[in-house]
Amino acid sequence: MSQENFPAVGGDTLTACLRHWAAATPDAPALTFADFAADPAGRRRTLTWRQLAERVDAAAAALPVSPGDRVAVLCPQGPDYVVGFLAAVTAGAIAVPLFDPGLPGHAGRLAAVLADCAPSAVVTTAAARPAVEEFLGRDLAIVAADRPEPVRPGPAPTAAPDDVAYLQYTSGSTRSPAGVVLTHANVLANVTQAVRGLGLDPAAATTVSWLPLFHDMGLVLGLITPLALGLRSVLMDPLAFVERPVRWLELLGDHPGGWSAAPNFAFHYCASRIRDVDRARLRLGRVTAIVNGAEPINPDVLDRFHTAFAAAGYRPEMTRPAYGLAEATVFVTTGPAAAPRVTTFDRDALATGTARPAGHGVQLVACGAPAGQLVALVDPETAVTLPDGSVGEIWVHGPNVGDGYWRKPLESTETFGARLAGGLPEGPWLRTGDLGVRHDGELYIAGRIKDLIIVDGRNHYPQDVEATAASADAAIRPGSVAAFAVAGTDTEAVVVVAEHRGHADLAEPAERALAAAIRRRVSDAHGLALRDVLLVPPGRVPRTSSGKIARGACRDRYLAGDYGKALAR
Known about the structure:
Elements: H1 14-24, E1 29-35, E2 43-48, H2 49-61, E3 70-73, H3 79-90, E4 94-97, H4 107-117, E5 121-124, H5 129-136, E6 141-144, E7 164-169, E8 179-183, H6 184-198, E9 206-209, H7 216-229, E10 232-236, H8 238-243, H9 246-254, E11 258-262, H10 264-273, H11 276-279, E12 289-292, H12 299-308, E13 319-324, E14 331-334, E15 342-345, H13 347-351, E16 362-365, E17 369-370, E18 374-378, E19 392-397, H14 409-416, E20 430-439, E21 442-448, E22 453-455, E23 458-460, H15 462-470, E24 476-486, E25 493-500, H16 508-526, E26 532-536, H17 551-559
Parallel strand pairs: 1-10, 3-4, 3-5, 5-6, 9-10, 9-11, 11-12, 12-13, 25-26
Antiparallel strand pairs: 1-2, 7-8, 13-14, 14-17, 15-16, 18-19, 19-20, 20-21, 22-23, 24-25
Helix pairs in contact: 1-2, 1-7, 2-3, 10-12, 15-16
């Protein structure tokens, strides 16, 4: 794909982009933060490109670092996070986007990541500094992005496109967190790929995001894409979205040409939690697109979302299913400007590795096609490419693919250095560990190789089993069910752990009856006899930092007996 077909970015590094827009459009708004903690109406705080550049330079001058040093960004969501991240990059260091130690439930992951990247300095805020110092428990240079004290005279070193810009730590759904090494060139290539794939007009677009800036999709959507293209970025805190999801859609409606991205659960959350009276005030006819990615896409959820907000002007073609992963910066494929395509595949054929459309079976949502990169469906055992209609591992080749995992040479070679057997280009290719199929020119995601359940030689995709289990009762929380395999006598056995909204009030006979209903549903739909069914209170099914079901962690808890005694069959 020729680069002249891509939208123009402001420079060949993130720092060069900031300099370009600060000079070309100094008084234009670069960043607006809607602060719902300070004001329920969302007090707006805006920085122009000149103001943003001045703040970044001041914070960069306060970082006592050398090129290649890591700087951990431990700021709360907001303008200071943007300043801290860009200050680390501007100072010539490698930014490590993380989060405030006060984020509930993630202290263990934060400690593991800090141990892995070994930062030379930390950037946070004056208010968060005491908690950061207490968490670190060691002598480390700490800079407050909102109150920097310059220590380095003179200009910072000039970055080159192939220099490492930041480490994006994976969410750890199938392994411990690993830092993906991303260069300036990787990131800017992915911005142009995504914008071209989505067909966005950079001259008329505004990004709107509540996604955490430490997450790959949140960082690229809310910070890097606006920086590269000179767009206005409108941010809010994830907690503000959880408290009142209508705030996100209100912000989108307030900015003509606004586009955003969110995982599937956010679409369900909005459709189920936003009241009719609030929907009536929304103006969504001016939205350009909302990308749906980061977790399996549920077609029923899309239907509910489209129906719920049709009167507000939202149209199905505004929803853009996508597939991506941190190892490829974030975006790999995106759907066209049309209503999401949903295809029903024969369940038995899919279990044997063939996607055959049928009247009844498994419904999958098409995730579009790549732009500016190559995607191959490959037999993971032979490294041979598979024809359309065959389920295989998704391999990716392009300028957006990262350089490897931080200081993990063996894992890097295995994941980033794959070679096709007889294919062109031979390599290197990124092995995603995801299963997919190409049908009618679009990519469909089937699941994770490591999560695949194999019983009596047949493949079962866990998200498919989970959806069936969740349909057994309205009180089972959608998207809060985990299905996984454990060792059986002769073959793998399957366990389901499901969160139940009213578990505290569920009498034992009712619990047994519900477990039996789940068993019947799964047996009828998949031909699977479940070994165990466990109903648990809300919040007991573990998730990754990006909100995905952590099936491996759930399996570990089950084997350790953390869920107590399973229900009798």
